[in-house]
Design a protein that fits this description.
Layout: E1 3-4, E2 10-15, H1 19-30, E3 35-38, E4 50-53, E5 56-59, H2 73-80, E6 87-90, E7 94-98, E8 101-105, H3 109-119, H4 124-146, H5 156-162, H6 165-168, H7 175-178, H8 181-184, H9 187-191, H10 193-206, H11 216-224, E9 229-232, H12 237-249, E10 253-255, E11 262-266, E12 269-273, E13 277-286, H13 290-296, H14 299-311, E14 317-326, E15 335-339, E16 351-356, E17 369-378, H15 388-409, H16 411-414, E18 419-424, H17 426-433, E19 464-466, H18 477-494
Parallel strand pairs: 1-13, 2-3, 2-13, 3-10, 7-15, 13-19
Antiparallel strand pairs: 4-5, 6-9, 7-8, 11-12, 12-13, 14-17, 14-18, 15-16, 16-17
Helix pairs in contact: 1-12, 1-18, 3-4, 4-11, 13-14
The structure holds flavin-adenine dinucleotide.
Length: 496
């Protein structure tokens, strides 16, 4: 039976308790607003969620933290909420296994320069200037995002408020949003096949596309991210749980197992409906993918979402493999990107990403054991709308191909039993996160259509905002939290 909630109206209803939802809910609640946070699942975290098998905690999707400096989005959100997540800074932040050799991504720029110039012999002379320029662009981009602005511009007010002297200093960054990384590379870097493969797979992790399409500016941010990588003790969901705790301690209402099925707008009030309840709110912050939103809204709001989903009809998906393993072997880091020796069918990238739990992290695995999460890009269509038999066949084929690659690159672990071995497909992610067709990769960055034409954080409806990884400025936890900061800024400016 559908009954109206006994709760009085909320100032904001935040839909989805992934990193986008918990962060924006906690930011709004800390200032004394009345906020409700809804999630259809029984646990929080979404794509950065977890599941448990006996004494093992497995990260379901995301495994790495970055952008933790005080002026960077993740560091900034934690500092605004006065939360200290339990993180270990990893150095090296990542190891790339390419043509059976190790490329070590050190944090220290001089060590990294030595590493990369030795590795990419065919473009040795161009490496230093390339990485120096990436570093400058990355720093300036984060400095710019730290200044109050209202991108993408939607009104004269936005222009007026964004045009302060500090922002003008960053006008020179604009062209780098409209040119691809490839168009910037000098010929020796493009013709160095090994380097180009490395760039392509590194960019797939963040911009979700290769150097031909990825804008120079966000490429610089994506390529710089492994220089500052953090491992969260207990798993990716632990910092999110701390944010949720802060939200609830400040008086916020978290409604789990509450799937929002419809949102309508009447007389300045939004009505949200779940299977068994309805709720009234003055404002909405959705963090669901825009494809989902089209299906749970109506009228002008639905038309608005439909327009954007036509422009961005698809999004990347993931295939994952999980297991626990007993080992005392010392690894140089927890994160490995492994370039494949041959393409794996029903996937769409040339590398797998392997994440080990830290040996000191006894919250994730018992002493002497480690958890392993492996992921690769795929397309939803490979795993949806096929027969059960074909689905199982494809799932097994991809899982075995991934394990073969893992065993080849970690021969010391190959003979160990793989405990609680499981695989996740777009269909698994659709069930776990509720995201349409299991599209978990947000929207790929691109020069055309440009980032400025992505879905905005502020919609042209009263107190209606869109966060998460399908809205400007893009996917990945740093980007998602940057979006939450932009929404917070907008609400403080426009809705107070
Ligand atoms: C395999 C994989 C690896 C990744 N690795 C990394 C990484 O290492 N580092 C990194 O920074 N990023 C990584 N990412 C990306 C990162 O996980 C996402 O960008 C980020 O977690 C998205 O957060 P979100 O809040 O936007 O969405 P989500 O995490 O998808 O959260 C949406 C929430 O909404 C809920 N929901 C859905 N429908 C409804 C409804 N109708 N009503 C109520 N609730 C609903 C879901 O249960 C979910 O909790 C990875 C992603 C994947 C899939």
């Amino acid at each position: 039976m559908n009954s109206h909630s006994n709760q009085t109206d909320f100032d904001y209803a935040v839909i989805g308790a992934g990193y986008a939802g918990v962060s924006i809910a906690a930011l709004l609640q800390k200032d004394g607003r009345k906020v409700a946070l809804f999630d259809s699942h029984s646990t929080i975290g979404g794509c950065a969620g977890y599941y448990k098998r006996k004494k093992f905690f497995f990260d379901a999707g995301a495994t790495t933290f970055s952008a933790m400096a005080p002026h960077e989005p993740v560091g900034k959100v934690f500092s605004l909420l006065n939360i200290k997540p339990n993180l270990i800074r990893l150095d090296p932040g990542m190891i790339i296994l390419l043509n059976d050799k190790e490329l070590i991504r050190y944090s220290n720029p001089d060590q990294w320069m030595e590493s990369t110039t030795n590795f990419f012999q065919n473009s040795q002379k161009s490496q230093e200037s390339f990485w120096k320029h990436m570093d400058v662009l990355n720093r300036r981009a984060f400095e710019f995002l730290d200044i109050p602005n209202f991108l993408p511009i939607r009104s004269l007010n936005d222009i007026f408020h964004s045009l302060n002297i500090k922002n003008l200093n960053y006008l020179s960054l604009i062209p780098s949003l409209f040119r691809s990384l490839k168009s910037y590379l000098n010929p020796s870097l493009v013709s160095d096949e090994l380097f180009y493969r490395f760039l392509t797979e590194q960019l797939m992790i963040t911009t979700q596309t290769g150097p031909e399409h990825a804008p120079l500016l966000t490429s610089a941010m994506g390529l710089s991210y492994p220089s500052s990588t953090y491992y969260p003790i207990g798993g990716m969901s632990k910092p999110a749980l701390k944010i949720l705790e802060k939200f609830q301690n400040d008086g916020g209402l978290f409604l789990k197992r509450t799937q929002i099925r419809n949102i309508s707008h009447d007389n300045q009030i939004y009505k949200l409906e779940s299977d068994s309840n309805s709720f009234l709110s003055k404002g909405i912050v959705s963090t669901l993918p825009i494809w989902n939103m089209k299906n749970i809204t109506d009228g002008k709001i639905q038309a608005y979402y439909t327009r954007f989903t036509k422009k961005y009809p698809q999004g990347p998906a993931a295939f994952t493999v999980y297991f626990g393993v007993q080992t005392k072997i010392e690894l140089k880091t927890c994160y490995y990107q492994i370039h494949l020796r041959e393409k794996i069918p029903f996937t769409s990238a040339g590398a797998i990403f392997v994440s080990f739990s830290h040996p000191d992290d006894l919250e994730k695995a018992p002493e002497g054991f480690r958890t392993v999460t492996i992921s690769i890009h795929t397309e939803s269509e490979y795993f949806l709308r096929i027969s059960k038999e074909e689905y199982q066949k494809r799932k097994e084929e991809v899982k075995l191909a991934i394990l073969k690659e893992f065993d080849f690159h970690f021969p010391d672990l190959a003979s160990e039993e793989k405990l609680f071995l499981e695989a996740g497909t777009p269909s698994t992610f659709e069930d776990y996160t509720g995201r349409m067709e299991g599209r978990v990769g947000g929207i790929a960055h691109s020069v055309r259509p440009s980032l400025l034409s992505l879905f905005p954080n502020r919609l042209p409806f009263p107190k209606f905002y869109q966060g998460g990884d399908t809205a400007f400025p893009g996917q990945g936890i740093p980007a998602v939290l940057q979006g939450s900061l932009q929404i917070y800024r907008n609400i403080n400016y426009y809705d107070n």
